[in-house]
Recover the amino acids of this structure.
C-alpha cells in the first residue's frame, strides 16, 4: 500500500469512498494507459487515483463543490504558480461593504469580521472554472472554510463540522448557548500554509478531465472520449440518504451560490421513490454507453437505508442491462458488503437514520455483435 497523498483530504464530505477501494479496482480491472471514468466523480478519488497510477482519467459531477475539488486534483498546477497567485490576490485585496450587506446574520457569527471580508473578496475574485491555479486555491478554501477551529488553525469559521455546513439558525443558536465566537484567521496566510501542506507530495504527472455536468449527459459532455472508457468506478447518490446541496450550502455559497441552504437544488441529490431512483440510474448508464470501449468493467459502490443488498443487486443489474443495450452485461459476483463509518457530527446535531452498510457490484461488459443487436431490436 502506497503512502496516502495529501490531496485526498483537501475537502472531505459525506458520500466519498476511500482511495484504497479505488486502488484495488484499478489494479484488478485496468492497465497503465487505460481510460478510467467516473460519472458521479464527487471529490475526485477515482480520477486522482487513476492519474497517480498512470491511467488516463475523466469524470463529471453536477455539484459545483465536487467539480471544483475533483478538477483541482486532476489539473493541479505547479506549487510556485499557486503561491504567486495568492500573493497577487493579496496585493489587490480591497473591501467592498456592499457585498457584505447581502449576507444574513449567520455569517457574522460564523466568521470574524476581517476574516469574513477576506473570504468575500476571494469568493468574488477566484475564477475556479477557468483557471487551474484559481481552481486549486478555491478547493483549498472549501476545505478550510469551516471546521473545528478550536482544534485546527486551518479552519476559518466558528466551531463547525468539517464535513457538512450546519443550518444557519441552528448554528447561531448552538454557538450562542456556548458563548463561542469566531477566531481571527488571516485568510491569505492560512491559505499559503494549507497549500504547502497539500504539496508535501507532488501532483500526479498525468492530467485528467473533470467537467461540471449531469451524469446523464456524459456522451455529449465528453465527445472526445467516445468508445475509449475501459473502466468505470463510481458511487451514485444513494436512495433517500442525503441532500448534497443542503449539506454543502456554505461551500456552494463560496462558489457563487445563495447565502442560505437550498433544498433539492439538484433534484437527483435525494431520490425518495424507488421507481424514480431506478429510472435515474438507467438514464445515467445510458448517457455513459457511447463512451465505453468494446470491452469494459463497471464497478459500482451503492447503499441506501430502504434497500437490501438483494434489492440493490437486482436493481443495479436491471438498470445496466436495460440501459447498456449494445453490451452483454455480466455480474462478476453477488456483491461485497462493507460497513459505513459513523458520522462525525454528533457534537453539533443528531445524525438522521441512514444505511450502515454499502455494497460493491462489479460487471463486465462486452459489445454485442451487430447481428445480435439487430435481431434484439
Amino acid at each position: 500500500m502506497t503512502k496516502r497523498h495529501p490531496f485526498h483530504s483537501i475537502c472531505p464530505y459525506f458520500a466519498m469512498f476511500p482511495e484504497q477501494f479505488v486502488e484495488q479496482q484499478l489494479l484488478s480491472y485496468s492497465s497503465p494507459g487505460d481510460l478510467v471514468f467516473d460519472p458521479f466523480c464527487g471529490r475526485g478519488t477515482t480520477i486522482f487515483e487513476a492519474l497517480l497510477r498512470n491511467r488516463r482519467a475523466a469524470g463529471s459531477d453536477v455539484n459545483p463543490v465536487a467539480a471544483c475539488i475533483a478538477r483541482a486534483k486532476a489539473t493541479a498546477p505547479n506549487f510556485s504558480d499557486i503561491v504567486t497567485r495568492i500573493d497577487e490576490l493579496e496585493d489587490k485585496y480591497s473591501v467592498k461593504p456592499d457585498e457584505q450587506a447581502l449576507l444574513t446574520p449567520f455569517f457574522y457569527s460564523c466568521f470574524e469580521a476581517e476574516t469574513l471580508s477576506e473570504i468575500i473578496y476571494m469568493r468574488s475574485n477566484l475564477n475556479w472554472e477557468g483557471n487551474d491555479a484559481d481552481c486549486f486555491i478555491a478547493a483549498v478554501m472549501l476545505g478550510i472554510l469551516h471546521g473545528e477551529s478550536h482544534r485546527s488553525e486551518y479552519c476559518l469559521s466558528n466551531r463547525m463540522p468539517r464535513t457538512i455546513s450546519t443550518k444557519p439558525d441552528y448554528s447561531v443558536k448552538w454557538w450562542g448557548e456556548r458563548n463561542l465566537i469566531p477566531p481571527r484567521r488571516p485568510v491569505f496566510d492560512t491559505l499559503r500554509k494549507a497549500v504547502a501542506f497539500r504539496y508535501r507530495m507532488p501532483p500526479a504527472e498525468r492530467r485528467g478531465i473533470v467537467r461540471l455536468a449531469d451524469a446523464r449527459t456524459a456522451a455529449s459532455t465528453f465527445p472526445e472520449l467516445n468508445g475509449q472508457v475501459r473502466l468505470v468506478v463510481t458511487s451514485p447518490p444513494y436512495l433517500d440518504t442525503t441532500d448534497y446541496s443542503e449539506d454543502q450550502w456554505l461551500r456552494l455559497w463560496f462558489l457563487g451560490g445563495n447565502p442560505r441552504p437550498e433544498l433539492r437544488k439538484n433534484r437527483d441529490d435525494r431520490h425518495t421513490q424507488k421507481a424514480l431512483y431506478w429510472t435515474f440510474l438507467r438514464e445515467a448508464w445510458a448517457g455513459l454507453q457511447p463512451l465505453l470501449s468494446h470491452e469494459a468493467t463497471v464497478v459500482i459502490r451503492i447503499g441506501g437505508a430502504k434497500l437490501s443488498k438483494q434489492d440493490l443487486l437486482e436493481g443495479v443489474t436491471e438498470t445496466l442491462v436495460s440501459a447498456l443495450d449494445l453490451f452483454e452485461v455480466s455480474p462478476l459476483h453477488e456483491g461485497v458488503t462493507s460497513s459505513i463509518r459513523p458520522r462525525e457530527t454528533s457534537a453539533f446535531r443528531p445524525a438522521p437514520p441512514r444505511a450502515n452498510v454499502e455494497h460493491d457490484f462489479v460487471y463486465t461488459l462486452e459489445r454485442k455483435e451487430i447481428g445480435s443487436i439487430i435481431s434484439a431490436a
Summary: The mean pLDDT is 91. Strands lie at 35-38, 56-61, 209-212, 229-234, 292-303, 327-331, 336-339, 357-367. The first strand starts at residue 35 and ends at 38. The domain at 6-63+212-243+272-376 is CATH 3.40.50.150 (Rossmann fold).
